[in-house]
Write a structure and sequence with these properties.
about 290 residues; alpha/beta; Rossmann fold; seven-stranded parallel sheet; 7 strands; binds hexanoyl-coenzyme A
Length: about 290
């Protein structure tokens, strides 16, 4: 879809880049010529991913263990990167989530998610953005969100709340930092199964009931996410900022309507419905005459 040197000379940091969606985006950035920085909490998966990407694309990949909940560690890490030169892009991908009835959450359970998604994403964005502004350097930020920012979602309330906050940050900083040439956008993926997410969001592997809610009848393909993440990171469409793009096969638009379930009706069902409505209309008309 893109020229192989599209991201040549760009230095891009992907948080949570050792696994899941982060790893997929990191691979695609490297494939298009970028130098990569990945961070996360587990050194083994970071090293494995870095080695894999270096092997495949012969680009530089630097990894660092980091918990983005620790603001000082985040700032130190970003300083260490900028000591070697500015970043061009930041992908706020690291997240935490699990399904649970909200009444059963402990304050620590809520904090575990809010501290990663809400606080950690801000620490990272602030640490990178202030350095860009100080040095008059333009950059691009992509926040990985979810469609729950528009609809809310039961059973993942700490995530829905935190991601909604980061959506507000996306819009707010696009406006505040536009004058510095910094663009801030979001991607709101629908179901893109990864081990980390599915173990916590779909532990009984019930893909069928989830797929029933997606008009396209399938989960997302990683390449679709990779392409959008690369488009948003590349130069050429800098006027696009403050936007969160849903990438979900229209799942949330379907689920958001009262009549979504009508999607399941056959032509015959619709015929019957039409008959029933016509009968009701005729009866009303008869009553009026
Ligand atoms: C209820 C739970 C729980 C569960 C943890 N807790 N899991 N409560 N149900 N299933 C509670 C614990 O009991 C504890 O509270 C508190 O949360 C902290 O738990 P820890 O395990 O000590 O936390 P920690 O090691 O910091 O791990 C953070 C985590 C974990 C968020 C809980 O799941 C994690 O590391 N996740 C990272 C990867 C991830 O989640 N990926 C999915 C992202 S998907 P108490 O009070 O008992 O001490 C995503 C959206 C995708 O973001 C959208 C797709 C459509």
């Amino acid at each position: 879809m893109f020229k192989k040197d599209l991201l040549k000379d760009k230095r891009i940091l992907v948080t949570g880049g050792g696994t899941g969606l982060g790893k997929e985006m990191a691979n695609h950035y490297a494939e298009h010529g970028a130098e990569l920085f990945i961070c996360g909490r587990r050194e083994n998966v970071l090293k494995e991913t870095a080695d894999e990407i270096i092997d495949k694309y012969s680009t530089n990949v630097y990894y660092q263990t980091l918990d983005i909940r620790a603001s000082k560690d985040v700032d130190d890490y970003i300083q260490s990167i900028f000591d070697g030169g500015p970043l061009d892009g930041l992908v706020n991908n690291a997240a935490g989530n699990f399904i649970s009835p909200t009444k059963d959450l402990s304050p620590k359970g809520f904090d575990a998610i809010a501290n990663i998604v809400f606080h950690g994403t801000f620490y990272m964005t602030h640490a990178v953005g202030k350095r860009w502004i100080e040095s008059s350097y333009k950059g691009s930020i992509i926040n990985i969100l979810t469609t729950w920012i528009w609809t809310g979602s039961p059973y993942v309330v700490p995530s829905a709340m935190s991601k909604s906050g980061i959506h507000a940050m996306t819009q707010s900083l696009a406006a505040e930092w536009g004058k510095y040439g910094i663009k801030v956008n979001g991607i709101a993926p629908g179901p893109f199964p990864t081990k980390g997410a599915w173990e916590r969001l779909n532990p009984d592997n019930n893909d069928d009931s989830m797929m029933d809610t997606v008009p396209m009848g399938r989960v997302g393909q990683m390449q679709e996410l990779q392409n959008l993440a690369t488009f948003l990171m590349a130069d050429g469409c800098d006027y696009l900022t403050g936007q969160t793009i849903g990438l979900d096969g229209a799942q949330y638009l379907t689920g958001g309507g009262t009549f979504s379930q009508l999607d399941k009706l056959s032509d015959e069902d619709w015929q019957n419905m039409r008959e029933l409505i016509r009968n009701a209309n005729n009866k009303d008309k008869a009553d009026r005459s």
